[in-house]
Amino acid sequence: METPNQKSAKFWPLVATFTALLCSVAGQAQSGSLQISEVKIFTLPANPVCGKPVRLVTEIFTNEPGTVEFTLHRRIGRKQKASLTTDRVGDGYAKRWHKHFVYTHSITREYMVVVKGHDYETSWIPVDVSCKTGPQLVSRLIDG
Fold it and tell me: 64: which residues sit within 8 A by CB, 6+ positions away?
């Protein structure tokens, strides 16, 4: 599969011919060509605590405002489709999407994000929560 840079290299003479035209309409040249510049996935807080709220956050950065569809994958095969619309942030465009969890028992999970229609995915990130009193608390509640 060719990357966008490899594809554009084949058409370099054509691009060079229209350089003057593109410069004169620079504000419109990017329209309709949404590019992903970065995708992040992380937890807040960085070190989740048993019984406390945790947010699994995806941040997507683009070259212009637009809707980005993506899939959140869990290593065991579960997945969730989602989308967001990037807005102006500083000199670029970005948006956060998040999911809330409260873990009441020890877990080790891994998540990644794959962006639809773009050759972009994150690395797997681990989410580890250690609940030293979780299982004991549950058994006490069940036993009465």
Answer: 30, 31, 33, 34, 35, 86, 93
Taking the model in full, what pTM does it have?
0.68
Half-sphere exposure of 61 (CA within 13 A, CB side): 10
Cross-strand pairs, 140? none
Torsion of CA 42, 47, 50, 55, to 10 degrees: -20
The angle subtended at Cα 53 by Cα 50 and Cα 57, nearest 5°, is: 115
pLDDT < 50 positions in the chain: 1-31, 134-144
Matching residue, tokens 């999911």: 99
What would you report as the CA-atom Rg of the chain, rounded to the nearest whole angstrom?
21
